[in-house]
Structures are given as structure tokens and as C-alpha cells.
Amino acid sequence: MSDARPESGSFRQARDNRPWDAFDWRHALFVLAVLMLGMFGDVLFFDDGLILSAKGLDLYNGELSGFDFLSRELRKGNLSLWIPHVFSGTFSLATALYPSLALHLFLPLPLAVNWGIALHVLLAGFFMYLWTARRGLHPLAALTAAVIFMFSGPFYLHVLAGHVCNLCAMTWAPLILMTVDGMVERPSLRWALLGAFAVAMQVLTGQFQYVYYMGLTAILYSLVRLSGVKRRRAAILGLFGIAAGGLLLSAFHLLHALAAAGEGVRATGVAVSFAAMFSFPPENFLTLVAPFFFGDIQDFPYWGRCYLWEMCLFTGVVGFCMAVFGALKGDRRRRFELFVMIAILAIVALGAHTPLFKPLFYWLPGFDKFRGTSKFMFFASMFWIMLAGYGCDLVIRGAGREAKGEVKGDAKGEGRQAASRGVELEAKGTAGSETDIGREETSGVAPAAGREVKGEVKGGAKGEGRREASRGADLEAKGVPGSKADIGREETSGAASAAGREAGYAPGWEANPAAGSGIGREGEAGDAGVGAVRTSSVFAEIPLVVAVLLGGLAIWLYYAPFPGGEAATGGPSLWNALVSLVAGSRESYLSGELYKNPHFLHDARQFAAAGLFAAAGVAFIAGGLIYLRRSSPRAVYALILLAVVEMFIFGRASRPTFAYEDLQISQFKGFLAAHPGDYRVLNLVNPNTALSTGAQDIWGYGPAALGRYVQFMAWTQGADPDRATTYLKINQYHPLFRMLRLRYAFIAGEKGIEVREFGDWLPRALLVGDWRVAGDREEVFRELGKPTFDPRQTVILERKPKLAITHAGMTTDLPATDANMAVDSPRVPVNIPGGEGGNIQKSAPPPLPMSGPVKAGTRNTCAILESGGDRLTVKAHIAVPAMLLVTDNYSRGWRARSLTAGKQREYEIMPANYTLMAIPLAAGEHLLRVEYRPRPFIIGVWVSTFAWIGFGALLGLAFLKRNLL
């Protein structure tokens, strides 16, 4: 016969909480890493050429080759400020110094990209864990919020879209907001250093729209948090220090990018109609619980407005229920802060669907430079997920309170004695047992919350349990107000707080105000003992109500009569209204005919209903687990596991891949190797592959293009230059494309890739003797459009050059060198490697007449001695002053300097033919270097150098001070 005493409920709960007392950021990082490897392991450890993202989206169309270019330049020791491979040369908004690009130095391109994506998904979850844990949430609640965030629709679906740089920028958002919390609550040097580092990393991603939106969010959040702070001046100075420090650390990239963007296509802002694109559609709030209500792209076309990855808010059905519970029962002050942030950011995200959009567009500096206000939903989702963390925290701590009130006696009369001892201990010890609850760390590690002994017990004898439990509840209600003296106190030492212990009881997690310390309370005061029971009943009702609503909607959609048309009688009227709304908005990227196809609409309803059925099932299971928790507190773990599994399944279903070979990069490389020369191409098959192949393309994919050039290209296509964007479609050849050095165009044909060749393309550098001045853009375009204009003979300038050069119609006699003559290629058709039936079609435009007579006895020559993407060295012999025309795009960042001591010491670079470069040359010998080195970049390098030195010194000082303490 065993002498072992049966376990009491409080002892059992204390034992269950032991692992969480030692749980810290290292354990969280390990768990999140396991989930990350489970999600991406197959594409991280096998070099089979598969790349995360869907074929035909941004990584496929441009970003992948961009990473190839950045890493290739980094291996050469070049920071790649200028990209010669797209848009006939343009500035770079990315930098090769962002840390994850180091992966490309030793991994193949597909593996490097996959590892970069996976690591940022991991870091996003880890930073969310640090932020939520620092607010005092139970470690399991913080971990749940982290998993929801890393696989949430607003963040994770950018993996599907191939927005690697977007993912990189979004990853740092939780860490930045955590430093705002830290600086507001306890200003310190360490918070300033951590925040400055996070801001600098986000800037270095080159995604300045997210940087700008993050800045607006951080400012708004700071104002909300500062409302109840006593040390407001110190907090404000600290917040300014975070922003200033981050900008100084990244100045070498930021100053260059800002200066370059000033010449970009969006330098003067965009049209209101363009900025209004990708405003969040109100009907997409359905995606909070049904992510694929409008289609999932892979199994069924997305028929909603705009793009799925920008318009999906999914944070899980369990996460949604937890967020609602946190909103209803969480700490009042924290709820208010989160409500304000969610409401304001959601309204801004709605964009053109609200009257607030135009005032922001016209009055808020920088707001008119971007489109896609729906991105604010990403920032709103972080605060929504924080609410879910609070709800999860309430559920966990509520279960703990219930378990602590379930002590059973093992013999006659022992229940009454245990109850009496519990009540006595509580009356004596509760007030002092929570004095240090909620003590936190600047590192973001979850606090070891206060440990207390509860006297809320249940007697095992007949009738006695009810009376003793009632007395325990009364005593707890009386003692709690005095037990919260130091709740929410924070520390900077990094050690977890351990509250008072009573003999015979293991420590357990308790509530603090950040985590909703008034569990189950209605208002400021309430009955804490009864609150645990109320917590169960209220939380259980939420998922069941959600299940009923979603299930009813799913049944209605699924069993509605098959319509005979878009608005057939007997069809669901709300469904027809929704379809009409989407079809009439002109914001869908599907053919309008599909919205009139009854079979498509029927299939869309069935697909939407299936998603609602799945969501209702998850909600029903969640409600059942919450009711089960009354008899078994460990059911909380099953509920959290359900939330994690739900998000993991969503992530796995939204993780397509494409093969590197689909880009046909090796085929394009082979063709270019067989046809050497300094010329440009027009690749209409895969626009940005020139970044990988080394070709130079006259067009490309992405927003980083010079405004002059995009306006010129729009003019050649008969479009309005004032409304020009990089989404311009190149549909026709223009004779002036020869001055852009266009030789080949690659076009997707029915039988493969069709290649067309154009003759008479200009070299990269040539001497032109005649020049004319046109006052404005319209006049320049008129001169360029004249039938008599020949770019080999005349340069159109926008002002007179400083160097006195006559323009009497003089031309030059140039030698036959690669620097100034086009190489005539074979006229016989050839097949492109990998193309089925593709061939080269010679379509040279007729020669244009010369402009002006040629002076006898003059001979000007030039040759390119060295050529690179962002530089060239030119040697020229000038008998008569002339213009050196460089057929690369003009930018203020180009510099020309003499490499020898000659008569002409200074060289002026001027815009020529509106988009190219011209350098006036005097008579004599010239050896000059033309290179792209913007002054803002040079200044930024010096600023960042001193900033990083200061950062290192301050970081060392902070660690030294900590060790001394």
C-alpha cells in the first residue's frame, strides 16, 4: 500500500508551470527555428534549383536577377550605385551591404535566396516574441503571437509574391516598435542603440515605402504611448536619438538614395489616381478568418480587388478569437492603445475608400510618392496580433487560476483542513506576494512573472467546499488591491523577476497589467476569484459564435441555387452585389468576361464556401477545447497547438516554388556570347534577366528608373510623358532607339522566343560636331522628332555649354573602332538556344539624311580604353572642338575628370537628347574618366563611418556599465 499523497490541483498546476519559469528568448528562438525548418527545409538543404515564390511574380520577374547583380558587384568590391543593365542605366535603391546578401558569396543563387527568405521569416517571429514578451505576456502567449505573425497573411504572403526586399523591411518592424516601448517606459542608452540599429537595417533594405510607413507608424505609436508617461522629456529625446542614430548609420545609402530618387520617375510625386491604386478594399476584411475567400491564386484564380498578398489579413481563426477576447477582457489601458493604433492604421490603409486619402495625399509630405496604402494593414496587423497575444495570455492565466482552485482532499475531513489552510495563507500572504509582478527586461525576454500562493480552494467534504471557496474568493478580492503595488515595474538588468514564494508550493506565472492583470474583471475592480470562471465562459462563447456565423454563411453560399447569369433570379443577392462591386471597381486583374460567366461564379462560390466551412470547423474545435479546459486546464496547450497548426498549414499552402531554369538565363547567356558587342537589347520575355546575363536592356521591371528616361520612352510610344510610369508597354520600334544602342529584341512567340535585330545602333561613345539648344522638354522632343534629326551628327542640349564650341554643322571623320562604329551582324536567320523555331529577323530602319556640311581637313577621333557598368575611360584627339556623346542615361551623379595634365582641366556633363550625356571637348588631347559617384554618397560614407565608430564606442560603454553594475 503506497503512502504517497494524491496530488492537489495547485501542486499539479505549479508543476506544469515549472518549464515556463526558465523559458527565455533562447528557447523561443529554438522553437521558432524548428517551425521555420519544417516550413522551408526541403528548399534549404537541397540544391535542386527550386526557388520560393510563384512563377511570373516579382522574384521571377526582377528581384532574383537583382540579387544576382548585387552579389556579383559585391565580389568585385563595388557597392553597385549604378545599374547599367536595365532602363538603359539607372540608379540603385538597394545596397550590397545588407547583411543577408553575404549568403550569396558562398551559396548558389537559389539557395542563397531561399535561406534569405527563411531567415527573415524566423527573425520576424523572433522579434515579435521579444516585443510581446517584453510587455509581460506569458512566454507561451508570446510564442503563439510570434508564430501567428511569422505566418500571417500581411507578412508571409509576400513569400508567395516574391517580395524578398519587402520581407526584409517588414522583419524589423516589431523590433523598432519594441524599442519605442522601451524608450517610453524606461529611457536608456541600450534602447537607443538597439533602435538605431533596427532603423538602419530597415533603411539598408532599400524599401523606402516601408521605411516611410514605418516612420509614420512609429511616430503615431510614440504619441499614443507618451500620453501616460512621467519622464516625457527623456523619452522624447530618446526616441529622437533612435531615429537620428538609424539615419546616421545608414547615411551612406540613404543620402544617395534620396538624391537619386529626386531624379526618379516619382520625384515630383505621382498622380492621385496612381497613388489611389491598391487601397485596401473593405470586403477583404473577410480574409481575417477566410484567407482564400476570393481565391488563392494556385488552386483558384484570385478574383478580388488588387493583389491577394496585399489584401489578405489572415491571422488564424483561433488568433482572431483570441484577439477578440483580448479586446474584450484585456487591461483597459493597453486595449485603448492598441485600439487607437489598429483603427487609425486601418483607416489609412483603406486609402481612396475614405475621405481622408486626399488630404493626406496633398498635405502630408512624402505621402504622394507612393501607391499602395494597403501596406498600412501590415502595421495594423502587428497590433491586432498583439491583442491576440493578450487574449492567449488571459486564457493561460485563467486556466492557472482555475487549477489553483481545485484542491481535493484524500481522506475524510482533509479537504476542509486544506481549504482552511489555503484561506489562511491567502489572507496573510497575497498582499505581499505580487510586489514584483511584471518586472521586465530591456532585452525583450519574457519576465518571470510573480509567483503567489492562492487560497482559493475547494474542500473535499460534503457541503464544506462551497463555503470555504466562497470565503477564499472574498479574501482574495480584499487582498488583491494591495498586492499590485509594483506591478509593471521594469528592470534593465536582464534577469527575470521572481515574486514571493510560500512553503510547499512551486512558483507559477501570474498576471501583470500589460498582460491584463484584471483577469475576468468587469471594469477597474471585480471579483478575481469568480473572474476565472467568467473567463472560461466568455472566451468559449466567442469561437462558438464565430463558428455559427461562418458555418451559416458557408451553407448559404454552398447550397444557393446555381445561377443562370450574374444576377439570376434565385441567386444569392449579397453574392451578386459583391461580384458586381469587384467587377465594377476595375481593380481586379482578371478578365471582365469571367465575372459574367455563371460557371466561374458558381465555382467561386463553392471555393469561398469551402474556406468558410474550414474556418467554422476550426472555430468549433477551439470552442470545444475551451469548454474542456474547465475540467482539464491542460486543454489550453491543445488550443495553442491548434493555433500553431492552423497557421503552419496556411503557410505551407501559400509556399509555391519555381525552377531557376524557367528564367532561361543560361539560354540568353549563350545567345549573347555568340553575338558579342557593346549594344542593348529589349527583353519582353523576362525583363530583368539582363541583371544576371550581363546584357544591357533598354527597359526593365521595377520603380527605380530615371524620370527623364521614362518620359522619353513614353514619348516614343505615343503616351503622355507627364503620366509616364515604369509600367509603360513597349509596343513599337522608334528610330531613336538606335541612339540607345538597341540591337536585339526578344519577344515571346507561339513557337518559342522570337528575336528581332535592328541595325545602325550607336556606340557607347562618339564625337558629334553639331549641337542645338532647345529650351524645354516639349521643344527638345520636337527637335528629336524631326525627320532630319540624326543623333550621329547633332546633339540637342537644354542650355549652352560653358566651353565655347561653334556649332556650324560640323561633323567628324571617325575611325573604324568598337568605340564609335556599329558592327553589322549577319543577316541570315539563327536560332536562339532553347527557343523553338525562334529566329532573328533583320528590320533595320531606313537611314536618315545628314544635317549640315562636313568641313574638310578636320579629323576628330576617340576610343574607349576601359569600360564598366558605372565608369568608362575615354581617350580623344580633338582637332576641332566637339561634343563627346555618351549613350548612357544622364544623371547628376555622373562625374568626369582628367587623368592627364592637358589644356582642359574641367569637364562638364550635360543632358543631351533629353536623356543621354554630352561632354564638351576643346581642341587637344584628352584622357578622361567618366564615372558615377554622386556627392551625397561620398558625404554619406564619411557620416556613416563616424556614426559606426561612435555606435561601437557607445555599445562598448553600455556593456561595460552593465558588467560593472
Features:
4-stranded antiparallel β-sheet; 29 helices; disordered N terminus; 965 residues; 18 strands; alpha+beta; single chain
Describe this protein's structure.
The chain is globular and about 100 Å long. With 965 residues, it is of the alpha+beta class. Helix 15 (317-329) crosses helix 18. Strand 16 and strand 17 form a beta hairpin. The chain is built from 29 helices and 18 strands. The protein has a 4-stranded mixed β-sheet, with no helix packed on it.
Summarize the structure.
The chain is of the alpha+beta class. It is 47% helix and 9% strand.
Work out the strand percent: 5-15%
Let me know the largest β-sheet.
4 strands, mixed
End-to-end distance: 55 Å
Rg from Cα: 34 Å
Please state the average pLDDT score. Answer: 80
**Structural class by sheet pairing and helices:** alpha+beta
> Could you name the ranges where pLDDT drops below 50 across 5 or more consecutive residues?
1-15, 402-533, 564-570, 807-857
The number of helical runs is 29
Biggest β-sheet: strands ordered side by side in the sheet: 5-6-7-11
Please provide the count of β strands: 18
Provide the helix percentage. 40-55%
Question: What general form does the structure show?
Answer: globular
List the helices and strands and how they pair.
Blueprint (H helix, E strand, L loop, with lengths): L8 H13 L3 H20 L5 E3 L5 H18 L6 E2 L6 E2 L17 H26 L4 H12 L2 H9 L2 H8 L1 H13 L3 H16 L3 H19 L5 H18 L1 H11 L10 H4 L32 H4 L5 H13 L2 H18 L7 H7 L12 H29 L9 H20 L30 H16 L48 H31 L14 H13 L12 H31 L6 H19 L3 E3 L5 H10 L5 E4 L6 H4 L13 H10 L25 E8 L2 E6 L7 E4 L1 E4 L3 H9 L8 E4 L42 E3 L18 E8 L2 E8 L3 E5 L7 E5 L11 E3 L3 E6 L2 E9 L2 H30 L1
Parallel strand pairs: 5-6, 7-11, 9-10
Antiparallel strand pairs: 1-4, 2-3, 6-7, 8-14, 12-13, 13-18, 14-17, 15-18, 16-17
